[in-house]
Amino acid sequence: MKKRQGLIITTVLVTAAIARAQPQPVDPAQPGGETGGSGAKIGSDSEDPPPPPPVDPPLTGGDIGPDPYAPTPGVPELPKRKPLPRGPISMPEMLTTPTGWLLPAAVLYSRTSLDTGGGVTSDTRVGLGDVAEFGIATTDAVRERSDDGDASASRIQPYVTASFRLGVSEDRLFEGMPGMTLGFRKSFERNHDGYQTRIAELTLVASKHLGKNTAIHVGGAFWDASMAGFLSPGATARTEFAFHDGDVKNQVRAFGGLEVRPLPKSQILIDLGWSPEFCYRCTSNDDKIKLRPTLSWGVRYAVADFMNLEAGVRVPDIGTANLLDAQIFGQVTFTSWALRRAVDSLK
Amino acid sequence: MRLSLTLLVVLATSRVAAADPVLSRVLTAPTAWLPPAGTVIGTAGYGRFGDGGMINLGIGLGGLAALDLGAENDVRGCTACDDDRPDAIVMGRAGFRLGVRQGAWGRGAPALVFGVRTTFAARGHTFGKARAAEAHLVASWVVGPTRLHAGVAALDAGFRDDVSLGPTVKPLAGFEWTPREFPKSSLMADVMWVPRLEPDRALLERVIGIGVRYQALRWGSIELGVRNREDDGLAGTTVLVRVNGVWAPRDRTKKATPPR
Fold first, then answer.
1. A150: which chain B residues are within 8 Å (Cβ-Cβ)?
2. Residue A323 C-alpha, separation from nearest chain B C-alpha, in angstroms
3. Looking at the whole model, is its pTM more than 0.90?
4. Mean of the pLDDT values across residues B92-119?
5. Could you say which architecture CATH assigns to the domain B2-249?
6. What is the pLDDT of residue B8?
7. How confident is the model at residue B40 (pLDDT cuts 50, 70, 90)?
8. Measured between alpha carbons, how far is residue A229 from residues A43, A150, A245, A279, A280 in Å?
9. pLDDT at residue A45, as a whole number
10. What are A305's strand-pairing partners?
């Protein structure tokens, strides 16, 4: 008895399973059904099939007519817009020195910095056509001394500069090519304590990624500067002295830096740059304008694609190894693709 | 001898903590601990005779550095140094520390930090342009219930433009012990050098500190300590109390796991 019941149950289950595995038959009355037309022909070879009775469209699913958003035949489709590159960029500046990387076209860059020496600086740039960039900045790197007996140099700030850089991005002309930029930075004339000073700097930098997490920057700078005022002890007439009046080799300096990314969002940065120092009443012309080496190291932390926090230590004159001159700085950098998007939308 | 050997074996075989602590100093000496990225640490303290008072805010940067900003009065100055106790000089302090966590460079490797601290905006003294700066290299280990800190510091201090100590290298050390029976309490001791300004010179004085830290809350702790400075004698020992708070941002990158 039990065996027979088992056989019946098994048969029923197998049959049910097979039945469910079959495709659901299409209602021949439905228009547009796969067998709607042909189904009507079943049993009537020559006669026209009777028109199907009107059927209300289902509320969900079923045939709801042509897609109003479907492309219209015959109308040419507009070319699809290339997706914009976004996100983090290769920064145009290390901590104090420029890099061989340029801002992408129409990308805005802004950096604001504070340090324990009371320095407040800002740097605003815009990328031009992927081959150049323009910027306005204030710097607190220019320093001054009154005479030979003045042991500690003080900063002249704010010192406003304008910069223009042009160059070629990495790997652009040939595989393995470093990013290269030729930059020019010039200050507006600064009046401070009765002295007028100006600086200008021409830089050529090459930057190269070494693997995914390391990059190196090497460059050379040609500096010029001038000052005007009472430039000697007991002077009664204002005179002017320019850096290029002295030895040319004093104007040329090499600079560079290293970036390492030990963590996905964090970079360690080290760079060595130069900054001018004016000594208004120094007796020797060689001491009137000097370039001082500045060593900086710090960390760049990518808080978001558009925002970086940087902090570190800057030693304005590493040549004297004066620890008391060391400054702790913090800065925030923003980059924006908004202008790029706006420009792109006009195309 | 046997005790020393036993202690060494116990320390060597103890487990290493999975995560580094975050506080950047013992009592005076710096540690090699770095806070995780975005973690904010606040400290406020008060000390007898104004010694040991501080307020400080630190933030972890990218998991490999930390930035500190605050004010403290570790540096002292005196104008009649034979008669009067030197007065504490309140100075703004900023520090930047860069380093690696314990075990980052291999099993058993200590946490290692290179830091620079400098002052700004000194107040409440007669020393014009008073400044102090310090660069330190510190290694820290968590070994079982203890935390060991050792390193060197190059210190400099000066005032006006003509008085300066010049970079002077000194050792530093610290020790913390958290008994297993009292997991929220730590006994601390450290030795460090800090500048002292005198009318015509700047010099360094040794500071020895002993104290207790009680981790009252998951995010907060309180410290009670005593510090003794070189040449002060036992009677010149000062008492200080400090509170620490640690705020770590929630990691939004981790997916929430629904409760089972």
1. 161
2. 6
3. no
4. 93
5. Beta Barrel (2.40)
6. 46
7. very high
8. 113, 18, 16, 11, 8
9. 41
10. none
